[in-house]
Amino acid sequence: MTSPEPDDDTRRILLADDNFGSRELLTRLLRQFTRAELHEVRDGAAALASFHLLRPQITLLDIDMPEPDGMTVLEQIRAAGSEAFVVMVSGHSKLDMVRRAVELGVGGFVVKPYSAQRVVEVLQNYVAKTGDRGLLKEVA
Amino acid sequence: MDPSRVSAARRIYAPRLIGLGLGGIAVAAALLQRGTTPGWAWALAALNALAWPHVAYYWCRRSGGSMAAEQRNLMLDSMLGGFWLPAMGFNLLPSVLVAGMFTMNNLAVGGLRLFLLGLPWQLAGAAVGWWLLGGRMVGTSNLTTIMACLPFLVVYPVTIGLVTHRLSRRLAEQKEQLRHSERMLRTTLDALDAGVLLYDVDDRLVLCNRHFLALHSELADVLRPGDRFEDFLRAVLRQGRVPQARGREQEWLRERLRQHAAPQGPLLRELQGDRWLRIVEQRLPDGSLLALSTEVTEQVRRERALDVARIEAQRQAEELSRTRDEAVSASSAKSAFLANMSHEIRTPLTSIIGFGELLLGDDVAHHDKVDAVRTIIRNGRHLLDVINDILDLSKIETGQVQLERIDVDLPILLRDIVTLVAGRAQEHSLEFAVQPQLPLPAQFTTDPVRLKQILLNFCSNAIKFTKRGSVRLEVRYAADPPVLSFTVADTGIGMTTDQLARLFQPFAQADVSTTRRFGGSGLGLYLSRQLATALGGSIRVDSEPGKGSRFHLLLPLEREAVPADMLTLEGDLHIHERADFAVTSISVPDLSGGRVLLAEDGVDNQRLLAAYLRQAGLEVTVVGNGRDAVETALRRDFDLVLMDIQMPVLDGMEATRTLRAAGYTRSIVALTANVMRSDIQRYLELGCDDVLAKPVDRERFYEVVAERVCAAPGAGRAAAADEAYAREIADLAAQFRAGLPSQLDQIRAALMHTDWAKLRSLIHTLKGTAGSYGFGRLTELSAQIEGELETERHGRAKMLCEGLILEARASLLTAIP
Q1: Which of B156, B142, B19, B50 is nearest to B89 (CA)?
Q2: Do B772 and A21 count as a contact with CB atoms less than 8 A apart?
Q3: Interface contact flag, A115 B658, Cβ < 8 Å
Q4: Whose C-alpha in B40, B238, B604, B817 is 20 to 30 A from the C-alpha of B347?
Q5: Residue in B with minimal Cα distance to A93
Q6: Where does the pLDDT of residue B563 fall: very low under 50, low under 70, confident under 90, or very high at 90 and above?
Q7: pTM more than 0.80
Q8: ipTM here
């Protein structure tokens, strides 16, 4: 359902974060490495709706965003039967949270602040997991 | 007396009375007609009619009412009847009546047999009468005679008919009863849970029951009533159904027939398919033979199993007592070993503690300090040797030692030995040389670690006990059978025969004082021998005091494991390439700028490893448990995580698993004392990049750390990206800085209006952004304020906000524009 159709060439990344600064930074970083469409939302409800609408290859969910929070969004995504590549983003890395995320099969757990290295690692993990290089920017 | 026989006599009494009475009347009528008749004839007629039936009745009763006595009476009846025929002048009507009466009587009582038997008696009676009375025929009967005979004509047949009817009915009843009891007998026999076989006096089969046929289903068509027992046995033998008799059929048959003729106790007979019958034969009083066969397969098997179990139990008991003896002797050997061991451990510990205390003193000269530290290190190493050897030993003894079988390059193996031994030999001013006797196999299969352990032990022994001269390692190969032999020869003090005998005992160096003089755990040779055995090889020593010793390790190779590739030239070996081992000081790599997370719960190890890492210029963060390891690793950027496996809260394995599952891609190196091959394999599978054994070998430690830190993404794409990122962030930071004053104004306004909700949202935004643009302190403060606001401690929040504003101002001033 949520996996991209094979002939659909467009790759999408969904960012869900209530903080403008975080989103801004992440978009700028992502643009350096990926040619995917970037979609931004500010809360959990929008994140869920966009997820089902866009079927993004990568979804970055802020755990601390409002209504509902990122973990709940991930739970609902999994409950809908999707195995999509979802990365949790958080200002902290409490073990309980990490474990919960791991149980829900996250593709990564990124602690803010973002750095280029962390963003690259997320993309590398995605490529390693799916073998899909389509969203990487061609390196000259 | 049998009542049924008495009643038979009584039954015949009535018809006889009536018959003879009427017969007497008929005779009297005939005599009257004749006119002149002698007096005795009248008396006889009266006696016949009135007395004879009573005489016959009592006569019959006295003789027990037997059928034979009654027959005799009947024959006398018939003779008397015959006697009266001539007396009546053979007058037709009475003659017919009299003759008919007796023959009918006989017929009714005894059937055709008595009827026929009675005829000669009747004729005899008639002949006697003819002779006594003189033959005279009387033509016809007059009316009187006819009238006298009439009642007789009616009564007699009716009486006889009734008696005959009753008799035949009784006969039918008896037959039915007989059939019934036979049926009952058969049902009962069939219901029996045993095979029943009945033979009559002539040894012919009378009957067998259903169970018997079930036991011998294939005999159903052989067994026929009337067959002789011997024929039956022969049939069974012909079918080969008596396993016991195989090969000696005739003998078995004779034996069986003898048993059958004079049955004794029960006998066991085997059927095909390991089934067993218990047969009891019994002679019945009438001479017939009853055989009962019961299937006792279960019983026989049980008994057999019981026998087996009994033997097994006996064997086990013997084994147990032997094991116990062994255990007792092993346990006493163990106690001696332990006593010795604690001594071996205590000795170096005493030195370590003693010299440690010495160092604590105030006025210790510098060279004394150095001396003390050296002693402590030497003893510590010795202790480590002892403990390693003990652990190896216990692993071997408990069968835990896991030998690997991998292809080993002989040149590389020899080179490793040279590397390790040559330096030490040089320190003792000894010459060390490898002397290969070519040709040698280039490769062979064994456990290289264990093989090296043995050879190194030989070499270090040789170096220890040699004051001057040389130590040589000779290598030879014999092709058939393929055996590789290593010999370490020294020019040392050698050993006496006595010392040689004690050589392979644990803790039995040739002399107790040698331990002190030469060091060593005293377990080395014992351990070597165990390892050699485990490798399938053996150890031999020859030595002469004062001339030196030769230690041989013979290692048979598996024929198929020997590759055809042989080394034939000295040059192939390249053993002596690295000859400069004398300097063993460790070079510390320069890894400045690298960041390492050390997750380790032991404080001493934390300090030691952190010191090692800092020596290499690395920035070290130390955590004491797995949870902190996970949280810190994710929060900050490290080039390497050193993960102790045994940690509280969350162990290293679980921490590593969690990190990898959360997409953590940086290097993780396990620190562990479990260095069995299977353990290492497990850690690598969990996601560790490498494994470092504890206690940590410093050289290898630096090797692994350097490799990992250099491999970390400091260079390459991410770095280039970080440059671009730095540009971007500078751009964003400028924007942020530009917007910061207005944000601060808004915060101040919210503070003045005590609009906590507004303040909270502002602070939250600031927290999320500030850190990313290099205002880490602002993020920290914002987080604190957010916390205070959450718990509605507005006073504290307000105070912190003031601090935040001051901090922001300060950073705006100091930040590079």
Answers
A1: B142
A2: yes
A3: no
A4: B604
A5: B631
A6: low
A7: no
A8: 0.88
